[in-house]
């Protein structure tokens, strides 16, 4: 395996900051020869090239990401990025506003399902905070 690129290193740092070290550690631990190139691709491109930019805030990126994932029906990713709001500064009200946009521009069914996922994920996060806090 070759030495990680600077973009990979930046991406991994950003990925850990946004998603949390335990989530990223689990993803890295489950890397295989089959998906290693994919893991490198997302770390360098999504996290090293896009999420690492300082043009807009991580809060804004979080809102955009959740809206796009909801609009496209990527439900597991919606939940993962709701969890990441703990680290991005996007509030529940921010996400509500993003999902209202989804309803208008991508359709009520997409937003309806995303609201359900968000509510469930926030409830799980609250429960986790009570058991660890």
Automatic annotation (TrEMBL):
Pfam families: CMD. Residues 37-119 form the Carboxymuconolactone decarboxylase-like domain. NCBIfam families: decarb_PcaC. This is 4-carboxymuconolactone decarboxylase. GO terms for molecular function: peroxiredoxin activity.
């Amino acid at each position: 395996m070759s030495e990680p690129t600077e973009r990979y290193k930046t991406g991994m740092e950003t990925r850990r900051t946004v998603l949390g070290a335990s989530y990223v550690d689990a993803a890295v631990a489950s890397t295989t020869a089959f998906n290693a190139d994919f893991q490198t691709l997302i770390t360098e491109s999504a996290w090293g090239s896009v999420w690492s930019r300082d043009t807009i805030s991580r809060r804004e990126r979080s809102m955009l990401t959740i809206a796009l994932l909801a609009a496209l029906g990527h439900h597991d990713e919606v939940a993962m990025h709701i969890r990441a709001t703990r680290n991005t500064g996007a509030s529940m009200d921010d996400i509500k506003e993003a999902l209202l946009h989804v309803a208008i521009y991508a359709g009520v069914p997409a937003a309806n399902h995303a609201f359900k996922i968000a509510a469930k994920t926030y409830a799980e996060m609250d429960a986790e905070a009570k058991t660890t806090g």
